[in-house]
Inverse folding.
């Protein structure tokens, strides 16, 4: 069953603009992760934010986490054509003895040159 | 860098054939996963393993089995391939717990005719 839900489903921007994607989830979590997938390839881990963190940066990426609203956002600043990809959030439930991540359906980002 | 390799990028099989998908990771990770990815359905966990010879069912194990005889290798077996198993298959591994950062292989696009 899906826990994370990203929005928007698809986003199209011009190179240089910022891109913001959101992820909402349903149950309490220990951490939330963002991954990128280029067309027809495997996923690549971008960033992990723990439940006691509110914001995290990595290069042009900024992730925020609001546990009261059960939501996270991924901001890509100064986007490039190479950022064109699908972006997924994945959550780890802290209920029970889960050993797996729960994945959202992804946001498809197109950055136009 | 962690490297996860999958035996084939593209595979075409016929209905009823037995299909083996192999995954190898080179970083001594405890956990390994098999997902399938379909448009509109996201990543769905088929099986995972947290130790040699150990396996646990994911969300959609029907029609599949797995084998983990060595720590670095996790095989997905389609006992009798069917057309509804046409999909992208992604293997992943993680170091400590299943909910840690997952490292993905490039994927195998399987077509069952």
């Amino acid at each position: 069953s899906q826990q994370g839900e990203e929005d928007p489903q698809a986003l199209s921007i011009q190179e240089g603009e910022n891109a913001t994607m959101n992820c909402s989830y349903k149950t309490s979590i220990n951490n939330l992760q963002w991954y990128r997938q280029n067309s027809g390839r495997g996923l690549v881990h971008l960033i992990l934010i723990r439940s006691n963190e509110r914001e995290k940066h990595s290069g042009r990426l900024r992730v925020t986490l609001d546990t009261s609203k059960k939501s996270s956002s991924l901001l890509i600043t100064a986007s490039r054509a190479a950022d064109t990809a699908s972006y997924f959030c994945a959550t780890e439930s802290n209920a029970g003895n889960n050993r797996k991540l729960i994945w959202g359906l992804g946001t498809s980002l197109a950055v136009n040159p | 860098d962690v490297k996860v390799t999958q035996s084939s990028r593209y595979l075409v099989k016929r209905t009823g054939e037995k299909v083996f998908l192999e995954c190898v990771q080179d970083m001594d990770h405890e956990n390994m996963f098999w997902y399938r990815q379909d448009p509109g359905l996201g990543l769905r966990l088929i099986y995972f393993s947290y130790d040699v010879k150990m396996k646990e069912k994911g969300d959609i194990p029907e029609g599949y089995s797995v084998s983990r005889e060595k720590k670095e290798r996790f095989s997905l077996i389609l006992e009798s391939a069917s057309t509804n198993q046409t999909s992208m298959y992604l293997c992943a591994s993680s170091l400590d717990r299943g909910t840690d950062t997952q490292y993905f292989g490039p994927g195998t696009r399987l077509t069952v005719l």
User: Anything to note?
Assistant: The interface with chain A takes residues 4, 31, 33, 40-43, 45, 48, 50, 56, 58-59, 88, 90, 92, 97-99, 101-107, 109 of chain B (CB under 8 Å).
